[in-house]
Amino acid sequence: MEKIRVTVWNENVHEKEMPEVAAIYPNGIHGAIADFLNRECDIEAGTATLEMPEHGLTKEVLDNTDVLIWWGHCAHDKVADEIVERVHQRVLDGMGLIVLHSGHASKIFHKICGTRSLNLKWRESGDKEILWTVNPGHPIMKGLNDHIVIEHEETYGEHFEIPQPDELVFISWFEGGEVFRSGCTYTRGKGHIFYFQPGHETFPIYHQPEIQKVIVNAVRWAAPAGGPEMKYGHFPERWVK
Ligand code: ZN
User: Fold this and answer.
1) What are the backbone dihedrals phi and psi of residue 214, each rounded to the nearest 5 degrees, phi first?
2) What is the mean pLDDT of residues 87-103?
3) What CA–CA distances, in Å, run from 151 to 21, 100, 154, 199?
4) What distance in angstroms lies between residue 14's CA and the mean position of ligand 1's atoms?
5) How much distance in Å is there from the Cα of 182 to the middle of ligand 1?
6) Residue 57 and residue 63: Cα distance in Å, rounded?
7) Which residues share a beta bridge with 155?
8) Does residue 117 have a pLDDT over 70?
9) Is 116 a residue whose pLDDT tops 80?
10) Distance CA 138, CA 236 (A)
11) Residue 219, phi-psi category: left (phi > 0), alpha (psi -120 to 50), beta (remainder)
12) Contact 180, 144 (CB under 8 A)
């Protein structure tokens, strides 16, 4: 069986600067995500981080990536435009992209969305969140219940300045009264994109089995479908003579 090749990208800043984050994720958020993905027999996950040459996203790495997972928060502006452009081209060519949590404000998600600044409301009060699915037949929901409870999470609230998603998979309720579109899909070119909100760095959210299951399912959903190579432009010959 051909495995789905995943690259988990993380800016990896909080893990180095905040001991409480390093305690939750001793191998980084990227390491934790790659670990649970690599337990799946059809997935092979590697990692890349901001401080690596070309942020670890060389042409060779991207050419050998079926699905890229993105976690960033405080260093979005340190990501080189040239690398963002390279990632974007690969998405249009069919590479899947899963944008997690504060990756909503990353350069690549801006480029995908085309909206002004990806605004939302937020509060770091560690409130409870319940994600409710609004699309139980979606492949990302395979094997899951109709809701997921996260005991402590950063609150994200509407309005979330995104284009209308192609599909909404989750909406969330937060203890402080906010609601949020927490699982959204898009298609750009041949690429499948999934934005998934959970994952503030000071809570052990990527250790939670249901959250891991959503990400595993999303990898399978976002993997390239293997459709035809498209040819565009001037076609001098008529198809029907
Ligand atoms: Zn956060």
Assistant:
1) -60, -45
2) 97
3) 17, 18, 10, 12
4) 11
5) 13
6) 9
7) 123
8) no
9) no
10) 42
11) alpha
12) no
